[in-house]
């Protein structure tokens, strides 16, 4: 990450996070395992994801300020999340990050940080 203290700063703050989210969700919507889990109006989901990822990657507590503690596992319990869906989600994020001009080392660090939560949300065999 060179001279940056957080991943959030290294990606360019909230604008950098927004670019990643905007590249990510079209892939999610088109994915046969993931698309059906998401609403047709994806904008509110994208807004929440931007707030969450900003906070998750070391930026300001944007998500918590609006919605309280993230409690992400609890928030994902209503959705059937299988190991295949967790991997598909990470695959979509990998593809979205590949479209950025971020250094490979930073992209891999972000995926590594996201893989823990992605697998933690699994609630179906």
TrEMBL record:
User: Could you tell me the superkingdom of the organism this chain comes from?
Assistant: Bacteria
Family per UniProt?
Belongs to the truncated hemoglobin family. Group II subfamily.
**Sorted alphabetically, which keywords does the UniProt record give?**
Heme, Iron, Metal-binding, Transport
Q: Where is the signal peptide?
A: none
Name of the protein = Globin
| Gene3D superfamilies xref list | Globins (1.10.490.10)
An MF annotation (GO) of this entry: heme binding
SUPFAM superfamilies from the UniProt entry: Globin-like
> Which residues participate in heme binding?
119
Q: Which PANTHER family match?
A: TWO-ON-TWO HEMOGLOBIN-3
One of the Pfam families matching this protein, by short name: Bac_globin
Q: Which InterPro entries match?
A: GlbO/GLB3-like, Globin-like_sf, Globin/Proto, Hemoglobin_trunc
């Amino acid at each position: 990450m060179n001279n940056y203290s957080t991943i959030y700063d290294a990606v360019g703050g909230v604008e950098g996070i927004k670019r990643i989210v905007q590249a990510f969700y079209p892939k999610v919507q088109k994915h046969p395992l993931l698309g059906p889990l998401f609403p047709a109006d994806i904008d509110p989901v994208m807004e929440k994801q931007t707030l969450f990822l900003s906070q998750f990657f070391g930026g300001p507590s944007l998500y918590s300020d609006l919605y309280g503690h993230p409690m992400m596992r609890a928030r994902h319990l209503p959705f059937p999340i299988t190991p295949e869906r967790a991997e598909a989600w990470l695959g979509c994020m990998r593809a979205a990050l590949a479209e950025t001009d971020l250094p490979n080392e930073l992209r891999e660090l972000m995926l590594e940080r996201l893989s823990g939560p992605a697998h933690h949300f699994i609630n179906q065999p």
